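Hey,
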Amino acid sequence: MPFLIRDLQRLGAVAVVGLAVLVCGLSGPAQAQRGPAQVVTDTVRVEPMLQTVEVLGRVVARQSGILATRIAERVAIVEVQVGDRVERDQILVRLSDDRMASERRLRLAELNAAQARVDSQKATLAKFKQALQRQNSLRGSTAFRKDLAQDLQRDVDSSTADLAASMADLARADAQLALAEIALEDTVIRAPFPGVVTVRHAVEGSYIRIGDPLVTLLNDVELEIEADVPTTRTDGLQAGGMVDAHLQPGGHVPAVVRAVVPEENPRTRTRAVRFVPQLQDTGVKLISNQSVSVHVPVGEKRDVLTVQKDAITVQGSRNVAFVVKDGKVEARTIILGESVGQRFEVIEGLADGDEVVVRGNERLRDGDAVTTGADQTSQAPAASKG
């Protein structure tokens, strides 16, 4: 029995050795016939980087609010519904105007009466002045009467005062007519700016008092982004500066700093900053109160050496990139810095102009032969952000 066991062990060892020889014999020629690996490369380059910090903001309307009435009257008709888009000066609500129209006619009649009194006083004054002038022309003759001249002078003075009072009554009547016309105009409520009706507060037949709400209007065209930025981060924000705004649930637009409000919130130690989104040719449609993440710059823009993220492979604790030289790859250990869009900042290990493998680097080893092609997706400069 011991002899049988030793024979089986020897037979197994021989089989293993034979299998190893067979594998080596087969894999050697196959490896040699495989040829250079096909890879895609990209160029290491220098580009600007601006480190930023993300601040949560929201879309706000520059024009939005409740339109109220200036007079107490019954609602005749509401011309709009919730969701209707309106233009500037478009009629929104009509109030009952019969009383206001009658009030205007009354004030107009009073104005005409005051004008008639003014005309009568002017004629009386002119008559007294003419009589006084005629009497004064007789001075030095026996026909001149001093007492009559004095009486005529008093009549002129009295008529002048009456004319002044009539002129004041005319001005008062004119002002009252203007108020009546304003009240009549206030029976028609028009849109002060273009926008969308978001709330309808009044219905036909209801009686409203001065200041009661009628409709809520939102200008959804002139929108801005407001973000509460920490005061320590506002130094890098100047009027006219450009930032990147990321929308929720997706997409991003450039935005220009319009104003940094000179008031600090004592609880959060932040300042409100307004940004104007640049939506031209973007196809992006913003809505009021939409969440936005604004990337606020926190340092000066600087030029850095960058490499595409796909060029980096992790081998243990090392970041490795394969540099192509003379048809072969050289594995280099590199030290990375900040993220720059779809690229990394290179601190050490690469130089400007190096060609690195970004496709097909998964199974490469140092010294492997390769044939290369350029990566067309990385030719445009990456967006700079931290």
